[in-house]
């Protein structure tokens, strides 16, 4: 990426978080989103790891029975950057009343169609998270999203505004390290495991930077867990934050 391109991507947008080029890129992937061998195959591999962390965080936060099948019963959940619903559908099955928001209308259309086919009642909409009149939620998630937004500070503030007092937020994102540049962009995108142009390393955010943004928004960040990769384990929760990490936040 040239310096000029990096500088252009780094500009904030006066509170608007959606980048039209990013929305268009992911909208083009909508038709394959639910194909575990398609362009979103990596997300299908990542989703169980995110759900493992999320389930443990939910149980700890609300002191749930760890054996409960619907630990989010009676709770509302918002997934921002929901794509075609890979996380929204499991959250619904865990008992939550779920809303999914995405920047790409094509993704929302694919999400609605898939949820209807699965018999799941999920509210989906496209648009700028700060502009939508959708209320507040017990659980707010944004997985692999903040690295794609135009104004990270405005995005975190908008997420915080959607979280009820005493609620739980869960975020995941790539770390900005030499390892993530090498593996996520050089290897994964270079070898076609992730569609080319999906990531821009300069937009990755470190745990310290994310912690500062959350603190500014009145949220306390929990201890991050790494999402690592090895040939033996595949993607898995790890103490190594170098590639990707997932973290809770609370008001």
UniProtKB/TrEMBL annotation:
Q: What does this protein do?
A: O-methyltransferase that catalyzes the 2 O-methylation steps in the ubiquinone biosynthetic pathway.
Region (Disordered) location: 1-22
Q: Which UniProt keywords apply?
A: Methyltransferase, S-adenosyl-L-methionine, Transferase, Ubiquinone biosynthesis
Name recorded for this polypeptide: Ubiquinone biosynthesis O-methyltransferase
The positions annotated for binding S-adenosyl-L-methionine are 50, 81, 102, 143
Catalytic activity of the protein = a 3-(all-trans-polyprenyl)benzene-1,2-diol + S-adenosyl-L-methionine = a 2-methoxy-6-(all-trans-polyprenyl)phenol + S-adenosyl-L-homocysteine + H(+); a 3-demethylubiquinol + S-adenosyl-L-methionine = a ubiquinol + S-adenosyl-L-homocysteine + H(+)
Q: Name one GO molecular function term.
A: 3-demethylubiquinol 3-O-methyltransferase activity
**Keyword match Nucleus:** no
Q: What class of enzyme is it?
A: transferase
- Pathways involved: Cofactor biosynthesis; ubiquinone biosynthesis
Give the organism the record lists.
Qipengyuania mesophila
The UniProt similarity line reads:
Belongs to the methyltransferase superfamily. UbiG/COQ3 family.
**CDD domains recorded:** AdoMet_MTases (cd02440)
EC annotation from Swiss-Prot or TrEMBL: 2.1.1.222, 2.1.1.64
């Amino acid at each position: 990426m040239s310096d000029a391109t990096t500088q252009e991507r780094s500009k904030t947008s006066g509170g608007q978080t959606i980048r039209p080029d990013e929305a268009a890129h992911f909208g083009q992937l909508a038709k394959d989103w639910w194909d575990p061998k398609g362009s979103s195959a990596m997300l299908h591999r990542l989703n169980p790891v995110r759900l493992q962390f999320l389930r443990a965080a939910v149980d700890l936060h609300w002191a749930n029975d760890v054996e409960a099948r619907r630990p989010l019963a009676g709770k509302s959940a918002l997934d921002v950057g929901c794509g075609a619903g890979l996380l929204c559908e499991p959250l619904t099955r865990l008992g939550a009343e779920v809303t999914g928001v995405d920047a790409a209308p094509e993704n929302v259309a694919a999400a609605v169609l898939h949820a209807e086919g699965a018999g799941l009642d999920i509210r989906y909409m496209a648009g700028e998270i700060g502009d939508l009149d959708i209320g507040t939620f017990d659980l707010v998630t944004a997985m692999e999203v903040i690295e794609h937004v135009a104004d990270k500070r405005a995005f975190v503030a908008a997420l915080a505004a959607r979280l009820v007092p005493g609620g739980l937020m869960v975020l995941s994102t790539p770390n900005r390290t030499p390892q993530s540049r090498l593996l996520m962009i050089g290897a994964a995108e270079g070898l076609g495991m992730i569609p080319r142009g999906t990531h821009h390393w300069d937009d990755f955010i470190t745990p310290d930077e994310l912690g500062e943004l959350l603190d500014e928004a009145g949220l306390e960040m929990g201890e991050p867990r790494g999402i690592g990769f090895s040939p033996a384990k595949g993607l898995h929760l790890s103490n190594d934050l170098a590639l990707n990490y997932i973290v809770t936040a609370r008001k």
